[in-house]
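Sample 3 of the quickstart, ligand uracil:
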Amino acid sequence: MSKLTVFDHPLIQHKLTIIRQKDTGTKVFREIVDEIASLMAYEVTRTLPVEDVEIETPVAKTVQKQLAGKKLAIVPILRAGLGMVDGMMKLIPAARIGHIGMYRDEETLEPVEYFVKLPEDIEQRDVFVVDPMLATGGSAIMAIDALKKRGATKIKLITLVAAPEGVEAVQAAHADVDIFTAGLDQGLNEHGYIIPGLGDAGDRLFGTH
Ligand code: PRP
Ligand code: URA
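Result:
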């Protein structure tokens, strides 16, 4: 069974509370999603390997640590996942970016794939799939399927708000994919929206309806 991590860092919790509020406008919503994504990148990269490197300070030679050159990829699920990319890239600028386009059919709630473009060496990379919302889990499961079909094996799912139903569905479909979220909410309403959630993340990020 994959691991679920709920980030309880006070800054992440505080910022998540701001974007949940219905009166938070698009500009602030986008800025804060960006900030939370940076904080989440800091947490999910905690286990990256480091190696010794010999350097010279203005005072002396010394052996210090540097990242061991692990290849990373950030893969947003379009559209809303795009809102998390810049914030993560601030901390891991060498990561490559893949894109997976997917939307939920509003009647059936089933995801529909419309675009996949990934780094060529995706099978060698640690992949962070990013999407603010994990609701039924259909979009994340299909995105992870698309990645595995193209050779990715080391995948983590990073989301701002998750419903227990979505977590269970992803864990059942992809037991090797650890899930990270800032908020584990109550559940889903009859329209497949997360309760209390934050509404439609794509619309709130991009000012659409
Ligand atoms: C939202 C969200 C996820 C998906 C979650 O995208 O960004 O991708 O719904 O729902 P699920 O877990 O039930 O699949 P949406 O389909 O609204 O598309 P958008 O990002 O283009 O707004
Ligand atoms: N997609 C969203 O953007 N919000 C939800 O609550 C569920 C799916």
